[in-house]
Design a protein that fits this description.
Elements (H helix, E strand, L loop, with lengths): L6 H8 L12 H16 L3 H15 L3 H18 L17 E4 L4 E4 L4 E3 L1 H7 L13 H8 L1 E2 L1 E3 L7 E8 L2 E12 L14 H10 L4 H13 L8 E5 L6 H12 L4 E4 L1 H4 L11 E4 L7 H15 L5 E4 L7 E4 L3 E6 L15 E5 L9 H13 L2 H11 L15 H10 L2 H12 L5 E2 L1 H7 L2 H8 L4 H10 L2 E4 L9 E3 L2 E3 L1 E4 L4 H11 L4
Parallel strand pairs: 1-4, 5-7, 8-13, 8-14, 9-10, 10-13
Antiparallel strand pairs: 1-2, 2-3, 6-7, 11-12, 15-19, 16-19, 17-18
Helix pairs in contact: 2-3, 2-4, 3-4, 8-13, 9-13, 16-17
Length: 513
């Protein structure tokens, strides 16, 4: 390949850079001046160079195309010289193929990481494009015309560029000619056929009775990251028994970038980029307080199970975008009481609980297990085992079995007011429809004080719902209230009735019938 022309060669070819007819003996100084101008132009950002190139070419007496070639030659010379930089210096230019243009934002996705860059940053790292040898084009402009996507998402099991489909609020829709950029990156671990016994023995040592379900849950995440498991895996027990160690090889098997860890406070916050995960670990759910425990439970419903089939991801400095709801949730906790809130009819949590203590494991046990994981191919062995595991007996959509620990947590979650509400409703004969005033008449003196406290108004509705009574709205009144005994009030009816029967019961109580 021919070397780029030197400054002297270009100047000799096109004549004097400053005047059409140079005075005798002036050439060397003019050459030096032209070289300085071109060196300065070669240092400019692409957009600044675009603004100055024509005027500079005119001043130098060069065709614009010749000036462009000269500036490129100077830039190539600098890049070539950069090879002698000290070890640890920053890398050189990136390639066009490293980026796509995200049209809704007017910004650019760096494909290796999924980070979103502004145009100026792209143009600073990717040289201008000169496809026709006449007019150079900024890299960002070329990408916007030739490598654009209409949407970004995160979708395991799909290619990086998803053609002719887009994600809507309800799922995938066909859209010929459009492309979605997939932020998901598959794992890079090389699964092996070596024996995974140390990991299996560790799981069995902590969770003997729940062993099969835990292994099946983990295998599903490795084999089918694009499919939703409709229940969370709860790993409970005292601190220091190796709950986190169970998940270490799973992190490698699904890809560390697809394994997210958050606290309960973070998971109920506004920003939810953690939903872009094959496994989402919510760590140390404990001592949340009554209100926060209920809020946490309600918030996690849509995270743990589908529907919704699409989640809206809200990240700092980016507009919301949709992703398939496929993350699998693991919750770790050290406490049965004061940790998770679980109602007795919950179908979204599989509870594994261990009675082991940290004293059951010697220090040498942990060093040996992690040496096997990190230096003897243990992570690869577990990944291979989970890839081969037979999932025919694991139904990701079925409610999980209730373990003894589940009933203990559910019982501990039941507030004393739930039992008092049940006793009062029982004393009233479990009526088809009831008002709070009716409940007060049948309540004990202590429970009546709780019912009279204004701050418990919302809690009353929740306690009724816990005991099988739901609010019935009056369709003829704006706020849904009923007129009972001359006062507007709420009416609750038994969940055992149909919608029509509940409405009839409310009307009879309000003396409509």
């Amino acid at each position: 390949m021919r070397e780029a022309p030197s400054p002297d060669e270009i100047l000799k070819q096109y004549g004097d850079p400053v005047a059409d007819e140079p005075p005798p003996g002036a050439a060397s100084g003019e050459f030096e001046q032209a070289a300085q101008v071109i060196e300065r132009l070669a240092s400019l950002p692409p957009l600044e160079y675009e603004r100055e190139r024509k005027a500079a070419a005119k001043r130098l007496g060069l065709p614009v195309a010749a000036l462009d070639r000269f500036v490129k030659a100077e830039q190539r010379k600098r890049r070539k010289g950069a090879g002698a930089r000290d070890e640890g210096a920053f890398s050189g230019d990136l390639a066009l193929s490293d980026f796509v243009a995200l049209m809704p934002l007017g910004r650019f996705i760096f494909k290796p990481t999924g980070a979103v860059w502004p145009a100026q940053s792209v143009d600073s790292r990717v040289p201008p494009i000169d496809p026709d040898g006449v007019e150079p084009m900024a890299a960002s402009a070329w990408l916007s015309r030739n490598a654009a996507v209409e949407q970004m998402t995160w979708a395991p099991g799909e290619e990086q560029l998803i053609h002719d489909r887009l994600v809507s609020d309800g799922g995938w829709i066909a859209r010929p000619g459009c492309t979605a950029f997939n932020l998901y990156r598959p794992p890079v671990i090389a699964p092996s056929t070596e024996n995974p016994a140390p990991w299996l023995e560790h799981v069995r040592a902590i969770y003997l009775d729940e062993f099969d379900h835990i292994v099946g849950w983990c295998a599903h995440r490795v084999q089918r990251p694009q499919e939703k498991i409709n229940h969370a895996l709860v790993l409970g027990g005292r601190q220091g028994i190796g709950k986190d160690t169970i998940l270490e090889p799973i992190k490698s098997a699904v890809g560390p970038w697809n394994f997210m860890e958050v606290s309960p406070t973070q998971v109920i916050g506004r920003f939810n980029g953690h939903l872009k995960s094959v496994v989402l670990r919510v760590s140390e759910a404990r001592d949340l307080g009554d209100v926060d425990r209920f809020a946490f439970y309600e918030h996690m419903k849509a995270v743990i199970a589908a529907p919704p089939d699409v989640q809206r991801v809200d990240e700092k400095f980016l507009p919301e975008y949709g992703i398939p709801n496929v993350c699998g949730v693991v919750i770790t906790t050290n406490n049965k009481v004061g940790g998770l809130y679980l109602p007795e009819d919950d179908r979204r949590h599989f509870i594994a609980w261990s009675g082991r203590t940290k004293d059951d494991f010697a220090a040498a046990y942990w060093s040996g297990l992690y040496d096997w994981l990190d230096r003897q191919g243990g992570r690869e062995a577990v990944a291979g085992f989970l890839h081969r595991y037979d999932l025919s007996g694991f139904d990701p959509k079925a409610p999980p079995p209730h373990t003894p620990a589940f009933y203990e947590i559910a019982s501990a979650s039941r507030a004393s007011e739930d039992d008092e509400m049940a006793d009062t409703l029982d004393a009233l004969g479990w009526p088809k429809a009831v008002t709070v005033a009716d409940i007060k008449q049948g309540a004990s003196a202590e429970f009546r004080l709780w019912l009279d406290d204004r701050k418990n108004r919302k809690a009353i509705a929740y306690r009724l719902e816990t005991n099988g009574y739901t609010l019935v709205r009056n369709p003829h009144q704006k706020e849904g209230r009923w007129k009972v005994g001359g006062r507007n009030t709420a009416i609750y009816a038994s969940d055992k009735l149909t919608d029509r029967e509940r409405r009839d019961a409310a009307e009879r109580l309000a003396n409509w019938a």
